[in-house]
Design goal:
The protein is α/β, with parallel strands linked by helices. The chain has eleven helices and ten strands. It has a domain of 182 residues: TIM Barrel (Alpha-Beta Barrel), CATH 3.20.20. Strands 1-2-3-4-5-6-7-10 form an eight-stranded parallel beta sheet, sandwiched between helices. Strands 8-9 form a two-stranded antiparallel sheet. The longest helix is centred in the C-terminal third of the chain and has 20 residues.
Length: 272
């Protein structure tokens, strides 16, 4: 009897121990744009990211100078991603501006980046000449594309380059069923959960989202989205909430979503 009780007790340990372990995180959706610089100097921004206990953060900014400032402060923490915006207000115009291509090419030649984005592109705009050039630059430099897009634009990106690596910002704001269809169709597509909360309530993962996570354990990542300066004050809170709902998943799956999937994408791009 003692033998069987001991075995049963040991079987319970991993689950119990997992709920007590600290959860490492990589936030794949941070912006440090020009309107945040005065309010939150680089040193203070790094302090917030470290206070959140992040293993790393994917950072893109309008302009890219913001990303470079943070990368200079903490190269161990920041994964630089090149945003094609030089200032705010270019979300709906950048893909019509041919000078963007030269800017991206110049930055890629000078600096280290894991990806290009986050950029906003929808539908057939993904077939415009500027976007076509961006896709080719990503291919040439071996970096991923971080696309704030609808499913149609994602499809158009993969039509141009079936081998592209794409991180789908906000999972397209689609429902789990639609996300599942896209992830199933495109093996090189990943999805972040930035600025979404319907996948978990308090400390429980929604059943439909759980099915999605289980079906695609290597494809989902977490993120905050500091799209406005005041969002920086939510980074720590978001990290804590993320750790809470991740505890509702098996440890191996939770760790992949928390940081391992993001680390794998960054390592691929940075050739580590």
């Amino acid at each position: 009897m003692i033998k069987y009780l001991t075995v049963a007790a040991l079987m319970l340990v991993p689950t119990s121990a997992w709920t007590q372990e600290p959860v490492q995180l990589i936030d794949t959706h941070i912006h440090y744009s020009h309107d945040a610089w005065d309010m939150l100097p680089p040193v203070e921004a790094i302090k917030i990211l470290r206070k959140a206990g992040l293993r790393q953060a994917f950072v893109s900014s309008s302009s890219d100078d913001g990303t470079q400032m943070l990368y200079k402060q903490a190269p161990d923490l920041i994964v630089p991603v090149l945003r094609p915006y030089r200032k705010r207000g270019e979300l709906s115009t950048w893909f019509k501006d041919p000078t963007v291509v030269d800017m991206i090419a110049d930055r890629l030649a000078k600096n280290t980046y894991a990806g290009i984005g986050e950029f906003h592109i929808f539908g057939t705009d993904a077939n415009r000449p500027v976007m076509k050039s961006v896709i080719q630059l990503a291919k040439k430099h071996g970096v991923f594309l971080h696309a704030h897009s609808d499913a149609a634009a994602i499809m158009n990106i993969f039509k141009q380059d079936p081998d592209a690596r794409v991180l789908w910002a906000h999972s397209g704001f689609d429902e789990p069923r639609e996300i599942d269809e896209m992830l199933t169709r495109y093996p090189n597509l990943r999805a972040d959960l930035a600025f979404r909360n319907e996948h978990a309530t308090a400390d429980s993962v929604d059943p439909d989202w759980r099915k999605l996570f289980e079906a695609h354990p290597d494809r989902i990542m977490v993120g905050t989205d500091t799209f406005a300066p005041e969002r920086w004050y939510y980074v720590v809170e978001h990290a804590n909430w993320t750790r809470t709902w991740l505890k509702d998943l098996p440890k191996e799956l939770a760790e992949k979503i928390a940081w391992k999937n993001a680390r794998a994408l960054a390592d691929w791009a940075l050739k580590k």
